[in-house]
Amino acid sequence: MVNAVLKPDTDALAAERAAQPVVHHQPKGFSDHFALSFTKLLRFSADTFFAKRYGHRAIVLETVAAVPGMVGAMFTHLKCLRRMRDDEGWIRTLMEEAENERMHLMTFIEIARPTWFERMVILSVQGVFLIGFSILYLLSARTAHRVVGYFEEEAVTSYTLYLQEIDEGRSPNVPAPAIARHYWKMADDATLRDVVLLVRADEAHHRDVNHGFASTIAGTPVDRINAAYPPHASDLAVGG
Q: What percent of the chain has pLDDT over 70?
């Protein structure tokens, strides 16, 4: 089920393997292969448009990644109402995921400062993805969660490469924005590298959770050990 597929610098890869027990879910059946192919298509599009501008790529990743949690929570909520049964904690988990991804987006907006054209592209991608993912979730919640699992695998890869860009001096290691320092309870002298490490850890946790949800729906064994989730501030307002 699990294979390590990342090829960043040695130290980052060692940290990745040590902190995150599940790196890649081997696809089984049409649903998984569809989810993986769809994710690879999104990755190819991001690579083509933004190349190695990882700050801008992060904005696209996060504006899309903030959609599934909210969609999944809404449809799970409605299904539980219809069937009059407990959600087993899924709704709160998915809502927190959506909030977490939104905070990633707000952080990288401060760092990358996208142009108006890039903002329009981002909004268009978000709108199309919202409609498409909602339809997919209605048709197959299992496939939808598997898409998110694979999407988060790609996010971990992207942030690992972003770390490499910072470490090798191709991306400036600027001070962490105030919103990031508050949300992740960081020190005042925290830098972009510290932010990327925490964001990558968030994505690894979401990866494992969504692969677990997909496997639960499919009735297949689930690895209950998830990547460690960094602590986050309960009050999201900076200075609150």
A: 81
What is the C-alpha to C-alpha distance for residues 20 and 3, in angstroms, rounded to an integer? Answer: 12
State if pTM tops 0.85. Answer: no
116-147: per-residue pLDDT in tens?
887 887 788 888 889 999 999 999 999 999 99
Arithmetic mean of pLDDT over the chain: 83
CA dihedral sign of residues 39, 149, 16, 176: positive
- Residue 229, both tokens: 């989730």
